[in-house]
Design goal:
Layout: E1 10-12, H1 13-22, H2 40-52, E2 64-66, H3 70-79, H4 81-101, H5 108-123, H6 132-147, H7 152-160, H8 162-177, H9 190-196, H10 203-211, H11 214-218, H12 227-230, H13 261-266, H14 272-275, H15 281-292, H16 301-313, H17 328-338, H18 341-347, H19 359-366, H20 369-385, H21 392-420
Antiparallel strand pairs: 1-2
Helix pairs in contact: 1-3, 2-5, 4-5, 4-6, 8-15, 10-16, 16-20, 17-21, 20-21
Length: 425
């Protein structure tokens, strides 16, 4: 397959992984789908963070891999074959232990894949371990106990434990030190997708944007001075590593990139149904540390593409007077914004001294892209924590729904303010 590719070309990463995976044989079948390819969660939870490690090996990142790195990627996967086969065997044992214990909550792949990888490295193949069934039962019980206490208090205790603080601070430092250099220039395709996503969403085009690493490429600009700040994602000149943190409040959350690891996870604990779909505390915290060092500070390429689409869809709304339309989605958001009576009122407040509107609210109303991108990031971040996927048909509902939410929030804040001050609501 690879020998026929011209020098300097690139090969789809998914095709390379599938090709190497097929050579691992039946031992990894529990980690595979019916067609013999690795499950999406196998790639997300095992291959990317524990085997290929694209954060430390940027040559393996993105949707395409340079032909000069093809053999190396295959070698890394094949060398991990015995550990992956042992992981698959442990996974089978843990599922049996789970059934015997009567555990039904949570997705077994989310809960046990990474634990099984640890067991494989600690004990090897469970068929050669005399007390493997006891280890599996104990692991299931540990995971269940951890998930039974997925609360803010336990998150705080975990992140303030002196031993954990040292370990997590080291992980955070290494994750940011190993950030890959900015990739190639952004690829085309965002505008074409925005032109059709509201009426005829193209699943193939959506998947192509993710496979090509378009969202990651578009994030390169965020490291330039003031770019992320102008988007409302940080108050700093450039994004910087977050603090670990030991407290959080929904009333005082800073912009997304300035939030501590504690603050980033805090919002996910607001509902029981959300906690039921999330990983255990240690896995969540480590995952959030790596997420903070990723493009757009999001872990999934579809989420990064959605941020780039949201940036372009909301671009130019701030111009207000005869704004240029860059896409069908942009025009639809422009039209929704222009229909808001309160927006017209605030834009007419030429004299700041005569207005009863605080400067921060007035700024958010006039320069709406900042609050829009902040809320879009929070929505995508929450979807990642809950393991939710995004299809092409979901994109416009997401982009438009976030914009509608921002406008409703601004309208309500302005109404409360005017009612409090005795003005017309």
């Amino acid at each position: 397959m690879v020998q026929s590719i011209a020098a300097g070309a690139a090969v789809p990463r998914g095709m390379l992984i599938a090709d190497a995976w097929a050579q691992l044989g039946d031992g990894v079948a529990p980690l595979s789908n019916p067609s013999g390819r690795p499950l999406a969660r196998t790639v997300k939870l095992l291959l990317d963070p524990l085997v290929l490690r694209p954060t430390m090996n940027p040559r393996f990142a993105g949707g395409m891999v340079g032909v000069e790195h093809v053999d190396e990627l295959r070698r890394v996967l094949l060398e991990a074959g015995p550990a992956l086969a042992a992981t698959a065997a442990w996974f089978q044992l843990l599922k049996q232990a789970r059934r015997r214990a009567g555990v039904t909550e949570g997705n077994p792949q989310d809960l046990y894949f990474q634990r099984c990888f640890e067991l494989a490295h600690e004990h090897g193949d469970p068929r050669a371990v005399p007390d493997a069934e006891a280890i599996a039962a104990e692991t299931v019980a540990e995971v269940r106990a951890e998930r039974g206490e997925v609360t803010v208090d336990r998150l705080r205790r975990f992140m303030t434990d002196p031993d954990q603080v040292v370990r997590l601070a080291g992980l955070l430092q290494h994750a940011w030190a190993d950030r890959p250099a900015p990739g190639p220039a952004p690829r085309d395709g965002l505008t074409a997708f925005l032109d059709t996503c509201a009426t005829e969403p193209d699943e193939r085009a959506w998947k192509a944007l993710a496979a090509n690493g378009t969202g990651t490429a578009e994030a390169a600009e965020l490291d330039r001075p003031r770019v992320a700040r102008d988007y409302g994602l940080t108050e700093k000149d450039r994004p910087a590593p977050p603090a670990l943190g030991d407290r959080a409040s929904k009333r005082r959350l800073p912009p997304p990139f300035d939030r501590s690891i504690m603050e980033r996870l805090f919002a996910a604990f607001t509902a029981v149904f959300q906690r039921a779909s999330m990983a255990d505390i240690p896995t969540m915290v480590v995952g959030e540390i790596h997420r903070s060092a990723s493009a757009w500070q999001l872990a999934e390429e579809p989420s990064r593409v959605a941020m780039a689409l949201g940036r372009d869809a909301s671009n130019g709304i701030d111009y207000w007077v005869d704004p240029p339309l860059t896409s069908d989605a942009n025009g639809r958001l422009q039209a929704r914004y222009a229909r808001e009576a309160y927006v017209h009122a605030v834009h007419r407040l030429a004299d700041p001294e005569s207005a009863n509107v605080p400067d921060d609210l007035k700024h958010e109303i006039v320069y709406v892209q900042g609050p829009y991108l902040r809320r879009l990031w929070a929505r995508l971040h929450g979807r990642e924590l809950r393991g939710e996927t995004t299809a092409a048909a979901d994109v416009w509902d997401l982009l438009d729904g976030v914009f509608r939410s921002v406008l409703l929030d601004q309208r309500d804040r302005l109404r409360r303010l005017l009612e409090r001050d005795g003005g017309p609501a």
